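hi! just following up on the protien thing from before. the input was this:
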Amino acid sequence: MSKHRVWVYGDNVNTDVIFPGKYTYTLKTPEEIAAHALEDLDPSFAGQAQPGDVIVAGCNWGCGSSREQGVTALKYAGVRAIIAESFGGLYYRNCINQGVLPAIVSGLRERLHTGDEIELDVANAAIRAGDQTFTFARLSPSVQAILDAGGLLPMLQRQFGAQEMA
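and the predicted 3d structure came back as:
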């Protein structure tokens, strides 16, 4: 199990709140994109996020448009996993493709505050918060391989060679 600091958010946080659409075609570098992650929801997030942080949220995290910047902004800010009661369908898949663990867990958010720590055990699909353990669905071997590689593109580049992917 590894320890991670959490950021706690509510229900129906859409992709435009996670990464404002007005920046979609103007920001290019990971640093620029990370600097605007969650700026309309939590202006302190981008300046204080650290590698390995985890977001714990309510229902319907990542609803809205399918823009992958809603995941990449958090990934570039250092987010390792997003644990929510439910996800927007495309957002869930974008998490996997970008190498960010999406886990569906009920009841965890109510036990935590931003800044708390959890222990995350991906291999056993378990999260420890204080004296309570929460579980999530085990990942399929193919999804685990994508996450282990850091995302779908890095996995394919390793598997088929970067030259063939160009």
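The chain has eight helices and seven strands.
The CA atoms of residues 7 and 114 lie 4 Å apart.
cheers
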